[in-house]
Write the structure tokens for this entry.
Amino acid sequence: MAPAAPAVPASQPGAAPAGPADGVAVRCRGVTKAYVTGSTTVHALRGIDLDVKRGELFMLVGPSGCGKTTLISVMAGILDQTEGECTVFGEDLRHMPVAARTAFRGRNIGFVFQAFNLLPPLTAVENVAVPLLILGRPRRQALETALESLHRVGLADRADSLPSQLSGGQQQRVAIARALVHGPRLIVCDEPTSSLDHENGHKVMEILATIAADGERSLVIVTHDARIFGFADRIAQLDDGRVVRIVNDPAEIPSAVTPPRRHAVGGSQAPPTPSASLASPAPAAPSAASAPSAPPAPPELPS
Amino acid sequence: MNYVAWKMLVGDKAKYIGIVMGLTFASLLITQQAAVFTGLMTRTFNAVTDVGAADIWVMDPKVQFIDDVKPMQDTELYRVRSVEGVDWAVPLYKSLLKARLQDGTFQTCNVFGLDDATLLGGPARMLDGRLADLRRAEGVIVDSNGANGKLAHAPAFPGGPRAPLVVGDTLEINDHRAVVVGICEVSRTFQSQPVIYTTFSRATTYAPRERKLLSFVLVKARPGEDPQLVADRISAVTGLAAQTSQGFKDLTLQYYLKYTGIPINFGIAVVLGFIVGIAIAGQTFFNFTLDNLRHFGALKAMGASDGMLLRMILLQATIVGAIGYGLGVGAATLFGYLTRNSELAFRLPWQLLLITAGAITFICLSSALVSIRKVMTLEPAIVFKS
């Protein structure tokens, strides 16, 4: 993983970038997003300033409706912000023509969805091949590359299975293989573990952490799941459309937000409790009992 | 991405079958009803078609269609023969007369009286006997449909089979004895009456006493002469109506189209098929797209352009359209083949296949366009909404 960086003072105009410009994958400055419904205006984002560095596993956490998904959509170039600037590898997607932006996404961004979004009639390997087919690769070649990608997530033996024949964890691993197959530089994940049990959630996070560890790809993960905070290089805590804080160490997340380490993925002895949610982002000093230990080291990917 | 489009389409079997069945039914209904309509309309002028030797039909100016006979004076024949460009002209008698069968029952028949000398205008194909046998005393030739159907002998016992009329049998036409000397094959007519051929002079003896008995004059234009010009010349010289064979067919067809409710009735059935196609196939296809909207959103997020998604939807529409069209037209053709020996009128010219293809294409395109519009306006951010 990338070395930990000092926390960026969030939501402050003119905040300095977290690192050198060439080391930044995603840069957001003063990003706002407002939805207008009739006479009502809902501000989903209220001036977001943050950087995601290359090779970093960056998490966005916060309560429901705090703007996490909106922010990740803006970062991925599938939603235009109302104001502010958001660049991905130096490209301002908002001002790109639609076709160019779509092509940019196809080449540079991989997606992992909460509901997997695998095409039910396609086999696992065919699902993984979809981004390559979108890029115009011949089908045979795409399937060969897809099989290699499935191999990386340890599912080569299930290549011909339909999504309905796979468990939730396996489906999410197929989705990760799909997100990786075309070699994107940025992978955005929306609640990748929320549909999974402890064991499968842990496996999925191990794979994602390993992907980030190669130093070439940046991962932005939106999550409610406090059990996976330990995998992050940095965590941005959002509330009411603003970045409340950015921390380098999950231990800095308040106890109301971070569950005791024994509940974390991979070391669970009891099911997660409602207190593990980010319903209340009120800052509180972490107690010794609730402070998590160092995150588990990412394992080698299955070969 | 064509492969992905195909798999998405057939992956949801219930909807896929629903769309194909909807299009099949629409295609079947449109083709079958239009073919029956075409068959019926063709029958209205089959009597003209069967008289292949003549280029021109001369008739009273008030005649509206082939069965609307308004007899002329015999002398009109000679006036027609005198017109420049006429190669030959022969009289033709045509009327509906009652025939009394051997069992005493009566049957209305379409009686044609052919020129005694040449027998021009007679049936093209004889199944039994010869056309020249009409010159035998009291001789008549009966068409095979009539001989095996309405003119067939009554069964020997209730419920028993009816024996067909054969050469040598007799019947009475307006109290005049007629002997069957031949069986011929003719096209079925609109009214499906048995067709009886005899000579012109004998036919006039069958007919009720009238001052005028010449129904039509059949004319052949001289080689090199334009039949239409000759027909115009005949009209100008004699004051009679002269139509080319095709013109007379068109006149007859126009009469049935204008003065009967047949086109409306069949048109309603065809429109119904079209609406069924739109309603079932269109709605199901749109629902199929709606069900896949999330997947289309995911593809869009992953870099699929609008053009790519448009091609996928058009391919899906083309596949179901082609399969539905093929099954529907195939079923309609099979229906026509299985009923080829029945009274049912069924004619399937290639133009009808094109019309059905056009209708199915319209249904598919309109369904696809609604779906395309939905996908084009889709925000890819939908994929992040739970």
